[in-house]
Structures are given as structure tokens and as C-alpha cells.
Design goal:
Oligomer: single chain
Number of domains: 2
Number of helices: 11
Strand order of the largest sheet: 6-2-1-10-21
CATH architecture of the largest domain: 3-Layer(bba) Sandwich
């Protein structure tokens, strides 16, 4: 057998990819992480989604943690860089989240990946795969001036868009498979506000109503959206602009990005004109890109079901906990929530992170197996750290030639690494 370049290659450097890369490295694997942007972090850094969702159960008077392991390592690193990382209770949804600063997150993830010996390749993406039957033998990685042909014993697709699975000729479902894709959101960050300014929800709701008289692109959300201050700054962070996506075409992405930027400018002008304390506000950032909730779903050996989530199903083959409520954005500005029963979390089974028909390909983050409704729960970043760590360790086992991964052995290794099962 020819020498391999790595034990595990991870495509995608978001929460799932970081979880997979560090999880595999902790287990003893030689790991490469391929990321198309110039920084890790996924939606938290490339789309300004400045909150980790899924680390804690919904509701209650105190936060109950459901994700540790690599996810906890990331929170600890953020605290070393000066972020509190204390659970924040959203008054809009009742969810517990962790507020983020994107620049410190980028740096912190750089440091963690380096500390665990992960070979990070930024400005690079997987563009091809050598699949022979049920085995991936290698991948093609392209950068600005490089084309690399790399091999590993096992692979993890943590791209969010199933980019590795797609080039490996894996069957993929787009959206819910019936022509509906969860709406995308353009987070807004405003500066120029006094740190002491109290943000009044009724005034923000009134601003949205005024915005709708000025903009050709209406906002349908009537509750004022989700907002807070950016951790460690007086800046105001607001999730209020949603865009429907009819498909994944270049033209649809272009229209969503451009219309959302037009909306952001009109909203800035509306806030300056109508909301006390926003007279000197400016738009700090809308990007770098629109927040993508959903694209493709590659075929997995098991799809978590709507019933699994609602019942809080516990499983002997569970390899991660998921505790975020189902949050669907089938129509822009009209989110729908359903809550987890039982103990407040359900298990992600091993087969949900295993590719159908490819023995050495594993999934992490948004691309794990889930039906169209369960996906509204599984997709978030806190859960992605947990599924990513499980996928990385499972990939390490597969790369060692251990044949079929045994759930109990995987669970024991994850628990030894500090993860919750």
C-alpha cells in the first residue's frame, strides 16, 4: 500500500471542521484541514453569525450544557482572549447562546489548531476526489497557485455545502427536496452608539415598519428580530434581514447578496431618522457574506427524524448530543420553532455521520443525516462541534484499518476527550 499523506483529511474549517480536525488529532491522527477562506470559524467568521447556538438546552432559569469536548476547548480559548463566553439568555427565543467576537475567534481557532498539530491549508478547497467503489483514495486540493493531490485513510466533509461528497459523486438532496431552501440572513453590525443606550424593542419594531415604506424589499419579521451588543464592544448586532433562496444558482446568490446590502443601507438611514440614539450610527459590517442556512444534504446511512427530535430520543449508538430546538426558516422573516422533548436533548447516532456507500467518508456539522424538519435543529454551530469531534475520531478509527467503527469504542474515546454523550 502506498504511503498516505495524512491519516485524516477534513474539508471545511467551520465548527464541524475544527471539531473534526482537533478531535482526530487528539485521538492520535495526522490531520490536514482544508478551508476555502483565509480563516477558520465558518459562519461565525465568514457571515458574522456572532453567536454559538446549541451548546445549551433551551429555556429554564439556568443554562444546561450539552456540548463539551473540542467545543469546550474553543470556549476556554476565547476566555483566554478576553471573551466571557457565559451563556446569554435570548429574550426573543428563550434560547441560551454564547456571544462571540469574530477577530478573537479567528485567532483563537488558529492557535488551537496549531497546538494540536493540525496542518491547516487556507485559501484552498477540495475540487476533486478519487473514489473507487466504496472507498475514497485521495482528493485534489486547489489554491491560488497550487494543485495538490493528497491521500488519507479517511475523510470528513465539514464544508456545510457537501462539497467533498459532491465531487465524490455522492447523491445529494437540495433543501427539503421539494423546492424549499431555508432562508438566508444578512447579519447587521452598527457602530456609533453609546454604550449606555437601551435598545427598545418597540422602537425597533416601529423602525421595521418604517423601513417597509422605504424599501422595495420588505421585511416580514414583526417581532423586532434577534439583537444584542457585540461582545466587548458598544456595537449593535441585529438579525432582521432574511432573503428567500429559490435555488443554489449563481444568479440567486448574487440577487440575495445585493438586495440584502441595499436593505442594510436603507435600514441604516431609517434608524438614523427614527430611533433615538442612532443619529450618528454607521454600518460597520454586513458580511463578509450572507449567512447560509442550507444548501445540499449528502446521502447518509441514517437521517435523524422529526420524531427523534421531538421525543428527545436517546440511543445506544449515540455519539453526540443535540439540544437546539427545531428552528425552520422556510419563509423569509417567518421562523417556526418546535422544542425537544424528553431530557431536553436527543442523540445523534453514528450512522448519521457516516456516508451512504463510502466506508471512509464521514460527515460533520450541517451535512450530517437529518430529514427536512430535524435539520432545523442539527445545523447549528454548537452541535457541529460535537458531531465534528465524533466524525474526526471515527475517521481516525477507520484510517487505522479497524473496519466498521464500533459505537461503544467511539463513545469511550470521545468521553476520554471530554465530550458529552
Amino acid at each position: 500500500m502506498p504511503a498516505r499523506d495524512y491519516d485524516v483529511i477534513v474539508a471545511g474549517g467551520g465548527a464541524g471542521g475544527v471539531g473534526a480536525a482537533i478531535g482526530a488529532a487528539k485521538a492520535g491522527a495526522k490531520v490536514a484541514l482544508v478551508e476555502k477562506y483565509g480563516f477558520p470559524g465558518g459562519a461565525a467568521t465568514n457571515a458574522q453569525v456572532l453567536a454559538y447556538c446549541g451548546f445549551f438546552h433551551h429555556g429554564g432559569n439556568a443554562a444546561t450544557q450539552s456540548v463539551k469536548g473540542v467545543g469546550q476547548d474553543v470556549l476556554d480559548e476565547m476566555q483566554r482572549l478576553g471573551l466571557s463566553c457565559q451563556p446569554y439568555h435570548s429574550p426573543t427565543t428563550g434560547n441560551w447562546i454564547v456571544l462571540l467576537d469574530p477577530e478573537r475567534l479567528k485567532l483563537g481557532l488558529d492557535r488551537l489548531l496549531r497546538a494540536h498539530g493540525v496542518d491547516v491549508m487556507l485559501h484552498a478547497r477540495v475540487t476533486g476526489a478519487d473514489r473507487r467503489g466504496a472507498v475514497l483514495n485521495g482528493v485534489t486540493v486547489e489554491g491560488h497557485d497550487d494543485v495538490l493531490h493528497l491521500s488519507a485513510g479517511a475523510y470528513v466533509d465539514a464544508t456545510g455545502d457537501a462539497a467533498l461528497a459532491l465531487v465524490a459523486d455522492q447523491d445529494c438532496r437540495v433543501g427539503n427536496g421539494e423546492g424549499r431552501i431555508n432562508a438566508y440572513t444578512m447579519p447587521l453590525r452598527f457602530g456609533g452608539l453609546s454604550p449606555d443606550l437601551r435598545i427598545d424593542r418597540t422602537r425597533m419594531q416601529a423602525a421595521v415598519e418604517e423601513f417597509n415604506t422605504r424599501s422595495p424589499y420588505p421585511i416580514h419579521r414583526t417581532d423586532g428580530g434577534i439583537y444584542t451588543r457585540v461582545e466587548g464592544t458598544p456595537d449593535f448586532w441585529w438579525l432582521i434581514i432574511d432573503r428567500d433562496m429559490p435555488d443554489l444558482s449563481i444568479r440567486s446568490f448574487t440577487a440575495a447578496e445585493q438586495s440584502a446590502r441595499e436593505m442594510a443601507q436603507v435600514m441604516l438611514e431609517t434608524l438614523r431618522d427614527t430611533v433615538e440614539g442612532f443619529g450618528n450610527a454607521w454600518l460597520v459590517q454586513t458580511g463578509p457574506q450572507i449567512g447560509i442556512r442550507e444548501t445540499r444534504h449528502p446521502a447518509a446511512r441514517y437521517e435523524i427524524t422529526h420524531a427523534d427530535v421531538l421525543s428527545g430520543r436517546q440511543r445506544d449508538d449515540g455519539i453526540a448530543r443535540a439540544s437546539w430546538p427545531i428552528e425552520l426558516h422556510s419563509e423569509a422573516g417567518k421562523p417556526v420553532y418546535e422544542f425537544i422533548g424528553g431530557r431536553g436533548f436527543y442523540h445523534v447516532p453514528l450512522d448519521a455521520i457516516r456516508a451512504e456507500g463510502i466506508d471512509n467518508l464521514f460527515y460533520a456539522g450541517r451535512v450530517i443525516g437529518a430529514d427536512a424538519r430535524a435539520y432545523g435543529s442539527t445545523r447549528v454551530m454548537g452541535t457541529a462541534f460535537a458531531t465534528g469531534e465524533a466524525a474526526g475520531v471515527a475517521a481516525h478509527f477507520a484510517a487505522q484499518g479497524q473496519g466498521t467503527v464500533i459505537p461503544a469504542e467511539l463513545q469511550n474515546r470521545l468521553i476520554a476527550q471530554g465530550a458529552f454523550i
